[in-house]
């Protein structure tokens, strides 16, 4: 039953990270008097609540055993995992390990490129694997930064959030944004833990940024979807924008991200001002075709 692969190692680290965040009282166990020798729940306590043997659970954390679906369901319940964390745990269990992985260089889908070109007042980008930036429109360049000046191999949204001062300064709540993008990246890492470029990205950012290193070690995960972000643009001022992920049917590993503002709000008017400013200052290609 031993596997010793990358999925099992990551699964063990994830389980450990989650159990250390739960107290006995949160799961209905008595908290013994005095100082506990470990933070959070003990392995034996998780095993008891999941109705499995302590040895079985220990082997899971050590990457020496694979879990069945009923056991994973029980652990999700015991560790109070949300939907995203539960999906992440199942990915790490190796359920999708046989799914083929494409190592070819991604290129933006033509239909997504046409859609980008038609969005004259809506910032939009196309993200690929590892949050690589595959294409963008003039509004996205005006909102975030001139992506064209960034070498293609460095054009990665997570890297820019942590390393690009202009993008970092856009977010008054930068820590929240950074942790969300990192959590989405970790979800992708579960799908292909042996991706060498992903490992290179994580290693680089772990060395460069202590926040990235700490948050990556916390094993937080999040799914892509929709939400609201607040930005402070140096030209048009504060913006409250709704973001959405749209997945390409031809290539599910490409997502179109759009940022829009509710009509009638100051942010809606400021996006129009930004579009006018972008039209006046655009003097470079807006994406690699």
From TrEMBL:
- UniProt name for this protein: Helix-turn-helix domain-containing protein
The record's listing under Gene3D superfamilies reads: 3.30.450.180, lambda repressor-like DNA-binding domains (1.10.260.40)
Q: Which Pfam families match?
A: HTH_31 (PF13560), MLTR_LBD (PF17765)
Its source organism is Streptomyces lanatus
Domain HTH cro/C1-type span(s) in chain numbering: 36-86
Checking PANTHER family in the record gives: BLL4672 PROTEIN (PTHR35010:SF2), BLL4672 PROTEIN-RELATED (PTHR35010)
- Residues making up the signal peptide according to the UniProt record: none
């Amino acid at each position: 039953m031993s596997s010793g692969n990358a999925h099992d190692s990551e699964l063990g680290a994830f389980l450990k990270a989650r159990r250390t965040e739960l107290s006995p009282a949160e799961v209905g166990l008595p908290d013994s008097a005095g100082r506990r020798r470990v933070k959070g729940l003990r392995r034996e306590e998780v095993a008891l609540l999941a109705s499995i043997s302590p040895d079985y659970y220990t082997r899971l954390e050590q990457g020496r055993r694979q879990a069945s679906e009923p056991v994973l369901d029980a652990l999700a319940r015991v560790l109070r995992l949300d939907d995203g964390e539960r999906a992440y745990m199942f990915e790490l269990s190796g359920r999708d390990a046989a799914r083929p992985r494409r190592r070819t260089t991604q290129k933006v889908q033509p239909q997504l490129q046409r859609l980008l070109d038609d969005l004259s007042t809506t910032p939009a980008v196309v993200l690929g694997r590892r949050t690589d930036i595959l294409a963008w429109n003039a509004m996205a360049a005006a909102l975030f930064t001139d992506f064209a000046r960034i070498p293609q191999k460095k054009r990665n949204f997570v890297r820019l959030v942590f390393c690009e001062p202009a993008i970092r300064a856009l977010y008054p709540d930068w820590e929240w944004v950074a942790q969300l993008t990192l959590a989405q990246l970790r979800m992708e890492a579960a799908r292909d833990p042996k991706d060498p470029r992903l490992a290179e990205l994580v290693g680089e950012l772990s060395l460069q940024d202590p926040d990235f290193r700490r948050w990556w070690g916390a094993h937080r995960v999040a799914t892509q979807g929709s939400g609201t972000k607040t930005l402070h643009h140096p030209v048009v001022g504060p913006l409250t924008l709704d973001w959405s992920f749209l997945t390409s049917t031809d290539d599910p590993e490409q997502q179109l991200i759009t940022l829009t503002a509710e009509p009638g709000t100051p942010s809606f008017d400021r996006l129009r001002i930004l579009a006018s400013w972008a039209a006046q200052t655009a003097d470079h290609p807006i994406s690699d075709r």
